[in-house]
C-alpha cells in the first residue's frame, strides 16, 4: 500500500493545514511511546496561501521553487525533484530553530530535540493561484501532480498533500495524485453541510478520474466537549460514516494555534501531556498512532 | 454612494459568512438603540457551500433558482430577478420561524420579533462550483455578476456579497460587481499571511478590472482578549491599515456559532447585551452602527 494522502475539505478553516503539518511531522519523527516507527515523509503544499512553510518558520523569500513550478513545468523531462524542488530536513530544522529563537528572544538555549530528519517539504506561494487558470486549458490538467510525482513516489513511505478550501483544479490534482483522502471536519454547524458536499465530490472523482481514491479517515477538529453543538456535529458525522471517524477528537486548544506563531508544529514543540501545553501535541500523536494502526491493518 | 459590498478573504473560516449574514440582517432590520435606520438589503451568496441559506433555516431542496442560474444565464434579456431569483423577506421569516420551532421543540411560542422585512436573499448551492469552469472560457467572465445586478441595483440601499475562501472567478465576480470590499480577519497567525495576499489581489483588481473598488473596512473576528497571539495579530493588522480597522472586535463566542444551528442570525435571535447570550449580538450591532457611521461620513 502506497500512502499518498490528500488532506481535503472545501470548508474553510477546519484545520487541514494544522492536521497535514502535524501528521506529516509525527510520521517522520516517530515515537516509541506512541508505537509509531520513524518514516520518510514528503509534505506537499497545494494551497496558494502557503501556510505549510510558515508552520516550520520557512521564510517565503528564501524559497527557490514551489508547487507552482512543478505543476506548470512543461519541459517533460524527468525533473530533478529531490534536489531542486524540495526543502530538505536540514533546512526545515534550521528554519524552525531560527524561528524559535526569534520568538523566544530572552531564552538562551534552543531545545535540543527541536529538529526533524525524515521530512521533505514542497512549499507553495501566491503564484500557485495562477496555476488554476493557466492549467485549465491544458490537456491532462487534472493529473499534472500525479505525473510529476511518479519519479519520486517510491522514495517516500508517506506523501501528505495539504489542499486549499475549494474543489477547484488544485484540489482535484491532489485527489488524482492521491490514493487516500483524509478529511478534517470542524465540530461546527456549517461543517455538516460541507461534509455531504465533499462526499459527493469524492464519489465523482472516483468515478471519472481516479478509481483508486478511497476515504482513509475523518478527524473531528476544534471540538469543545462542553458544547452541545460540538457533540451534535460529532454524532452526525459519526452516523454518516461510522468506521472512518478517528477515535481521537482534536480539541480546540490555544497552544495548537500558537505553534504556528513559533514556527514549529505542536507535536515537536510541546512534549505530549494530558493537560497544559502538551495536550494538543498528545492528541495529534494519538491521531498519528491511529493512522499507523489503520495502515498496518490494510 | 451605492453600497455594493463584497465580504471577502481567501483565508478559510475567518467568519465571512457570519459577518455577511449578521451585517445584512442588522442593516435591514435597523435599531433605534444603535442608531441604524432600517434599509432595503440584498444578500448574495457567491459561495457554493451555500451557508447563507442555512443561516436563515432555508432548506436547500426548496430553492428554485440560485446564483448559478444568474451567472450562467446567457439569454441576455432582462431577467425577472426580483420575483424569480430572490428569496423574499416573507419566505426568510417563514424559514427562520420553522427552523426555530424545530430546534426548540418543547417551547410553544416562537419569539414575536423573530422575523425580517427588508432583506432579500440570492442563495447558492453546489452547482455554483461548476460556474468557475463553465465561465472560464466566456467573454466578460469576470463581470457576469455586475451585468446581472445592473437592472436591480437601484432597488436596494445595500447589496452584501458573501464569497468563497479563494481568489477564483467567483470571488473576482464579486469584487467586480462591488465598489467596496469588507475584510473579516481572524485573530490567528495564518491569517496574517493571507492578509497581505489579499491586499495585493485587491490592488490588482483595482488596476485591471474595477477601478472603483476600495477597501471599506476590516473587522477583527474570533478575537480572544486573553490570548497574546490574538492581540499580536490585531496589532499587526492595525499597523498595516490603521484607518480601516473597525473599532469593534468580534470575540469568539459560542452563541454566535450556535445561531447557525438554530437557523437565525444572532443579531435577531439574541437580544444585544453586555454578557451572556446577547454579547455576540451586541458586537455585531456595534459593527453595523460603525458601518452606518462610515457610510454617513462619505
Ligand atoms: N486544535 C486546534 N485548536 C485551536 N486552534 C486550531 C486548532 N487547529 C487549528 N487551529 C487554528 O484554526 C485556524 C484554522 O486552521 P487551519 O488554517 O489549519 O485550517 P485550514 O482548513 O487549513 O484553513 P484553510 O481552509 O484556510 O486552508 C488556524 O488559525 C489554526 O491555527
Ligand atoms: N464570533 C464568533 N464566535 C464563535 N464562532 C464563530 C464566530 N464567527 C464565526 N464563527 C464560527 O466559525 C466558523 C467559521 O465561520 P464562517 O463559516 O462564517 O467563516 P467563513 O469565512 O465564511 O468560512 P469559509 O471560508 O468556509 O467560507 C463557523 O462554524 C462559525 O459558526
Ligand atoms: Mg490551510
Ligand atoms: Mg463562508
Features:
homodimer; 298 residues; alpha/beta; 6-stranded parallel beta sheet; 45% helix; binds adenosine-5'-triphosphate; binds magnesium ion
Q: Cα distance, first to last residue of chain A?
A: 8 Å
Biggest chain-to-chain interface with counts:
A-B, 38 and 38 residues
- Number of helices, counting only DSSP H or I runs of 4 residues or more of chain A: 13
Mean pLDDT of chain A: 94
Bound molecules: adenosine-5'-triphosphate, magnesium ion
The sequence of SSEs of chain A as H and E is EHEHHHHEHHEHEHEHHHH
Task: Summarize the biggest pleated sheet of chain A.
Answer: 6 strands, parallel
**% residues in beta strands of chain A:** 5-15%
Portion of residues in helices of chain A? Answer: 40-55%
Number of strands of chain A: 6
- Quaternary status: homodimer
The neighbouring-strand order within the major sheet of chain A is 3-2-4-1-5-6
The coarse silhouette of chain A is globular
Low-confidence stretches of chain A: none
Secondary-structure class of chain A: alpha/beta
Radius of gyration of chain A: 18 Å
Structure description:
- 2 copies of one chain form a homodimer.
- The first copy, chain A, is α/β, with parallel strands linked by helices and about 300 residues long.
- Helix content of chain A is about 45%, strand content about 10%.
- Chain A contains 13 helices and 6 strands.
- Chain A has helices at about 15-30, 50-55, 65-70, 80-85, 90-105, 130-135, 145-150, 170-175, 190-210, 230-240, 255-260, 265-270, 280-295; strands at about 5, 40-45, 120, 160, 180-185, 215-220.
- A 6-stranded parallel sheet of chain A has the order 3-2-4-1-5-6, sandwiched between helices.
- In chain A, helix 9 (about 190-210) runs parallel beside helix 10 (about 230-240).
- Chain A is globular, with a radius of gyration of 18 Å.
- The mean pLDDT of chain A is about 95.
- The interface between A and B is large, with 38 and 38 residues.
- One magnesium ion binds near residues 17, 47 and 162 of chain B.
- One adenosine-5'-triphosphate (ATP) sits at the interface of chains A and B.
